[in-house]
Amino acid sequence: MVNIAVFASGRGSNFQTIYHKTVDGYLPAKIAALISDNGSAGAIEFAREQRIPVFVAPPGDFPSPEVFGGELLRILKLQAVEFIVLAGYLKKIPANVVDAFPNRILNIHPALLPSFGGKGMFGMRVHQAVFDAGVKISGVTVHLVNNEYDAGPVVLQRAVDIRDCHSPEEIARKVLAQEHRAFPEALKLLLENEYRVEGRRVIIRKIKHDPH
Ligand code: GRF
To answer: How far is ligand 1, taken at its centre, from the CA of residue 172, in Å?
Structure first.
């Protein structure tokens, strides 16, 4: 069992999906903390219902990213967290946290990176940009986190045909359904196998699991 922390700023549908996949045994993980920057995030309510420890830490309450990161590291140590999952977390992860969890922070982005990513590209802004560009395929990217926005090594991508979508909202709905499949799949891949990062490539070495 790997102790994971989920960071979420909003509704938390990806968080809920991951939680259910830990409970049904698909993921060899336990959610040891839900960390949010936003005290009214829907994710918090769900975490409380499931008795998952909740920590609210808005970066603006701290004098610098380093001090904010120090507080996150304190929480992560307290909860014996080994792996971090960013499920709709809108704030930048401070460098001291990224350094303390090398290649052990996973993020989901609702488009096919490296297109439609970078600073300020989150939520509906991504789907609006995809819609405006008139592209016919969007998708989901699950990637490891480094110190640049949306530029970490890609673990898994899933394409979504959006030819039948007539609005950014329709694209968002269609992509979200695939996020809920891709995120647990990518997390399972990393938690159950050995992997390393070479440049921007994630190399996974599959390990055969004895079911007993
Ligand atoms: C998802 O589209 C995710 O890709 C993005 O933010 C959204 C979060 O949705 N990073 P939810 O809070 O998991 O429902």
So the answer is: 9
